Amino acid sequence: MIFFESTIFWRKKVGVTKPKSAKTFGKKEFAYFLFLIIMCLSFIIWYGFGISTQRLEDTTVTMDLYEERLKMNLESTLTDSHLVERERNKLLMAIEERIVAFLYQIPDFSYIGSLETYLKYRPQLLEQFPSAVPLEKGNYSVTSNYGIRVHPISDKEKKHYGIDLATARGKYVYSAASGTILNILFSKKGYGTHIIIKHRFGFETLYGHLNKVLVRKGQTVKQHEMIGAVGRTGSSTGYHLHYEILKNGNKIDPILSFNLKKNIYSHLIKSNTIKDGVE
Ligand SMILES: [Zn+2]
Q: How far apart, in whole angstroms, are the C-alpha atoms of residue 89 and residue 82?
C-alpha cells in the first residue's frame, strides 16, 4: 500500500499522469498471457506423458517378472506339487489384478509377449481383443503390408495403415474379437463400404472395401462372428479386405495379432481344450 501511495505521490510531484497508451490489456500483456498459457500446457503435456510412459514401463517390468516366475513355476521339478500349485495360483491372481490396466496402457501388440504364459491359462481373454485373422483359414493371401508403399491407383508413395488380404469376391469377413459395431460407412472413395468395431482395452478394428454388411450399428458381436463379405468398393484394384487395428486411437500393425490365438492355443497344456477358430 505504501509503495503505491508513494508512486502516486511521485507522479503528482513530477507531473506524470497515467500514460494514455496504458490499456488494461494491451498487445504486450496478451503476448505475455499467451506465453504463460503455452508454458502451462506444454508442462502439463510433457509431465503427463512422462508419467504415463513411466507407469507403462514399470508395469511392463512387473508383468515380465510375473511371466518369468510363472514359467519357472511350470517347469518346477519340486516334488511338493501342492506348494507349486499354490504358488502358481498366487501368481495368476497377481497378474489378474493388473491385467486390465496393463492391456489399456500398452500401445501395441509388441507388449503381449509378457502375457503369453498367463494367456495359456486364460485363453478366453483373447476373444476380447484382436487376436485372429478376420477371414477363413488358408483362404487369403497378404498382398500389402502395413507401412510405406506406392499406392496402386495414385502411384504416389503413401503410408498404408492396414493390411490387405486378397481373397475371392463374397468370402465372409469375421469379427477379429468380441465387441460392438461402432459404425458402418458407405463411401465411393477410400475404404468404400466399411465396418468399424469397438473392442475392450482401447482396441478398434476396421474392415474395408466390403460388398455386403451383415450387422447393424450398435450390435454386439462375438469373435469370429460373420459381419460382412469381401468386395471391391471404394479405392480398390481387386477383391480384397483392407483390415486395420487401432489401439488407443492410433493405427497399429495388425500382423502381430494374426498368430496370437493360434500360438496360445497350440501351446495349451491340455490338448483337449484346443478350439478350432476361423483363423
Ligand atoms: Zn489396404
A: 11
203 CA → ligand 1 middle, Å:
19
| Burial category of 33 from C-beta neighbours within 10 Å (exposed 0-12, middle 13-18, buried 19 and up) | exposed
Same domain for 87 and 161: no
Distance 213 CA to ligand 1 centre (A): 18
* 92 alpha carbon – ligand 1 mean position (Å): 39
Confidence band for 261, pLDDT divided at 50, 70 and 90 = confident
Alpha-helical segments (H) within the chain: 2-14, 27-74, 81-105, 116-121, 255-258, 260-266
| Dihedral sign computed on CA atoms, order 66, 71, 75, 81 | positive
Do 95 and 185 fall into the same domain? no
Distance (angstroms) between ligand 1 centre and the Cα of 162 equals 6
Taking the model in full, what pTM does it have? 0.76
Residue 117's domain comprises: 37-128
Instruction: Report the alpha-carbon distance of residue 204 to residue 246 in Å, rounded.
Output: 5
* Selected residue with higher pLDDT from 10 and 40: 40
Pairwise CA distance, residues 37 & 39, whole Å: 5
Q: How many domains does the chain have?
A: 2
Residue 171's domain is classified under what CATH number? 2.70.70.10
pLDDT exceeds cutoff 50 at 64: yes
